[in-house]
Fold each of these.
Amino acid sequence: MRLDKFVCKSTELTRSEATQVIHAGNVMVNGSVVINEAAQVHENNTIALDGQRLKTRNFRYIVMHKPLDTICSNVDEAYPSIFNYIDIEKASELHIAGRLDADTTGLVLITDDGRWSFNIISPISQCEKVYRVGLRDVIADDVSLKFENGVQLQGEKQPTLPAKLNVIGPKEVLLTITEGKFHQVKRMFAAVGNRVVSLHREKIGEISLDINVGQWRYLTVDEVNLF
Ligand code: URA
């Protein structure tokens, strides 16, 4: 992995703060100062900041296939929490990188690494989320262009960021967005006079669902490093 990423993962520093300490010559790899933040390092290397050896923390990274009528919360409310499906130690320390509504199904990423989830959620990262949407009314021809240009949602100051619409059938579409405003997909279709009747998240970044409803698995190292 890149040196700046390693420094971030093993300290409380942000990416730009990590770059600064690297450029300042405060980081050593196997005993030599490295000032290139993009240098490739391995966890077996001895990497030190200001003379202190850094160790990556053992964060947990999980993908889950959320069932209908469950909630993305750490506690049960009107519906059971998705954490009922994840029977591991200290599950209460985990949080969800982009919640889904109770009536939305599909891909949920779960972790205890706040920086990693920020990379997924923050619109700055441009991380694409793909939703399969069932609609009440036939999709109008102009919706694709409207979503590309951004639509104004009620109560929001800024229009939505450019979104891609892929029409699958008269009342079924795939929508790709890079932000996650409250009820965003439902509000986007409401803004163009339609209504979402079913919603399923298929993909986040390059991670697609490969497990059955209610199942979960740990992400591979390569998958974690995608974000
Ligand atoms: N947009 C919504 O409206 N609901 C979700 O659950 C996810 C995205």
Note: Residues 1 and 41 are 6 Å apart (CA to CA).
Amino acid sequence: MTDGPHSLRLDRVERHYAQGEDRLTILDGADFEIMPGEMVALVAPSGAGKSTLLHIAGLLERPDGGEVYINGEACGTLEDARRTAMRRQAIGFVYQFHHLLPEFSALENVMIPQLIAGLGQKQAAERARQLLDYMRIGPRASHRPAELSGGEQQRVAIARAVANNPYVLLADEPTGNLDPHTSGYVFDALTALVRQSGVAALIATHNHQLAARMDRAITLEGGKIVPLDLGAHL
Ligand code: ADP
């Protein structure tokens, strides 16, 4: 069931919303692919359809047409249970706000998705520790989110997103709540992790400087995905 070397591919994806009598077209033949270990910036104005695109790529929403391939598997028409399993196992999400569980430690937050996926306590703890060390927050592993700085919380959230070794990492303004210095630091950690793990990363951001540091940038125009030349925007 493979379909080339990409980790994420959207093929002529359509998404429309009914608006009274009218039909609002958000995605109109959206096509792109992201290779393993590739980092792509999604830069588009508010309302252009970034969240819609991330939700469809993340199997949270179904397209009205076209197909989403995750590691070569067609996922748009999978039945619900299989889609949910695929989402848990194959896709990691990072949001602007960390959404860590407040009553659990950093370590436990990174363990939980692995436990849900069926891993044993010991293995999950081991991997969580490795990831937190990799993100340079190993010494903070026993702290709860409220005891961590914004940058540390976000690094835990990134570690959690890749805990199950997903093929695809989707991020929505992952450094949007951070000051520029911390944002750069968290972005560097994210980049290192993408390169090291070979996950395909699609990262929505309004920050052109961060976007320029990724492999390439794309935007949405008339419901289609087009390359974005950041040189023209800086
Ligand atoms: P972005 O994330 O780029 O700001 P969205 O994907 O959230 O954009 O939304 C794109 C457009 O689709 C917006 O105009 C929004 O109002 C509209 N939209 C989003 N979700 C719905 C919905 N469930 N019903 C109707 N319109 C929606």
Note: The radius of gyration is 18 Å.
